[in-house]
Every structure is written in C-alpha cells, then in structure tokens.
Amino acid sequence: MTLAGVKRIAARGEGRHIEFKLRVPRPERMAREMIAFANSGGGTLLVGVDDDGSIVGVKDVEEEEFSIRHAVGLHCRPVVKWRSYRVPVSRSREVIVITVPASKYKPHFMAASSSSASGPAYVRVEDRSMEASPETVELLRTEGHEEGVFFELGEREMMLFRYLEQYGHVTAEGWAQVANLPRHEAGDVLVTMTRAGVLTQHRQESGEYFTLHMAE
Predict the structure, then answer these.
(1) Which of 108-112, 167-171, 203-207 has the highest average model confidence (pLDDT)?
(2) Distance CA 38, CA 45 (A)
(3) Sequence-separated (6 or more) residues with CB below 8 Å from residue 35
(4) pLDDT score, position 81
(5) Beta-sheet pairing, 94-101 with 83-88
(6) Which of 31, 43, 138, 159 has the maximum number of C-beta atoms within 10 A of its C-beta?
(7) 141-215, what's its fold?
C-alpha cells in the first residue's frame, strides 16, 4: 500500500467496507469494528485518518499496533484474522492500513475478556458497526448452506405472505405481534424463509426488516 493508495481510500469516505480512526480506540471499540468487518464481507480500517478523510498519521506505530493485537486477542471470538501495513505520510508519522478479510468462520462475537463467554456479534450497516440481531446471527451462522432448505407452507407462512403482499415489509418484532408468536419463533420463521430464498433481509441504521424476495 502506498500513500497514493491511502489517499484514494480516504477520498471515498467511510462506508460499509471502510472505516477511519485518528487513533486506535479502546479495546472493546476496536474489537467491535474488526468483528463487524469480518462478519460483513471484510473491510479496510485506516488509523491516522480523520472522519472527514484528512490524512494525519500517527507517531507511535508500535503502540498502536500493540493495541490492535490486544483488542483482537482479548475480545474477538473466534479471533479475527487481519493484516496491517505502515504507510509513511511524513518524516515522523505513518498511517496504519488494517485489512480484515471476509471470514469463513462467521459469526464472530465480542467477549468481555479472553476467558469469558461470548457476547454480541456485530455487522456493518452503512458506515457503522452495529449489534447483530438474533436473525442476523443465525443467517451468518448458516451462510453458504442454503441449498436444500425447505419449509412447510402452513397457516402462519400463508399469513406472512398475505401480510407482506399488503404491507411490503415486516420486522421480526412486528411479525411476532401479527402472528401472536414468541419473538424467537417469529425470528425462526423469517430466517428459514430467508434461507430458502423466499424472503430478503434488509439492514439499515434504523433497524432491519424483511421483504418478499420477488418484491425487490
């Protein structure tokens, strides 16, 4: 990676696969960004670049990279793979380019410590790293194994079809209320029908919802 390459990335601005940080944030925040990228097709994080794309660089690169290793080792379950590159921007400052590949071991979760149980998972939604819903976690867990997914077209599935034909979209909470189902059962229906290719999940900063696949 060259300075010209860093400038090209910075000019694109933050998005689903790009994040800027002036410094490596506290470990939990850094781990959240790494987890979200790994769960969302990968991404690039530039340390030493401001939110507006201004390239500033960092002075103590060794300390910043230590903080990254500490965050990933302590808080990411399973551990997220990443690589870093140093790009000089002046005689005393460098930008750290961190690349996180799309993971084969999704979903990744946040852990409070190296010995604690896993907590929430995170995904990228537009230019933010947000906590994944139970439905998103299950879709991540089963991603790539959609072939041969079937479901019984029962009364509640027909009710869901009619609802979506009338209103266009539904949330897991909304479907639970409409169908008078426990929240987890409503989510299971949506996940199964999404995996079968009947529904499509949409994620936004305001929340997530499902539509009929044919309605896109």
Answers:
(1) 167-171
(2) 12
(3) 76, 80, 108, 109, 110, 121, 122, 129
(4) 96
(5) antiparallel
(6) 31
(7) Arc Repressor Mutant, subunit A (1.10.10)
Contact 157, 189 (CB under 8 A): yes
CATH number of 3-132: 3.30.950.30
What's the rounded Cα separation, in Å, for the pair 7 and 104? 30
The three-class DSSP label of residue 210 is strand
Cα–Cα dist 207/9, whole Å: 28
Identify the pLDDT of residue 146: 63
Q: What is the pLDDT of residues 48-94, one digit of tens each?
A: 999 999 999 999 999 999 999 999 999 999 999 999 999 999 999 99
Question: How far is Cα 40 from Cα 153, in angstroms, rounded to an integer?
Answer: 31
CA distance 197 to 124: 22
Beta-strand relationship, 42-47 and 18-21: parallel
Q: Locate the domains of the chain by residue range.
A: 3-132, 141-215
H-only helix segments in the chain: 3-12, 27-39, 61-75, 134-141, 155-167, 172-179, 183-195
Per the structure block, which two tokens stand in for 83? 């690589």
Using an 8 Å Cβ cutoff, are 201 and 195 in contact? no
| Distances in whole angstroms, Cα of residue 98 to Cα of each of 107, 113, 150, 162, 195 | 20, 22, 40, 46, 32
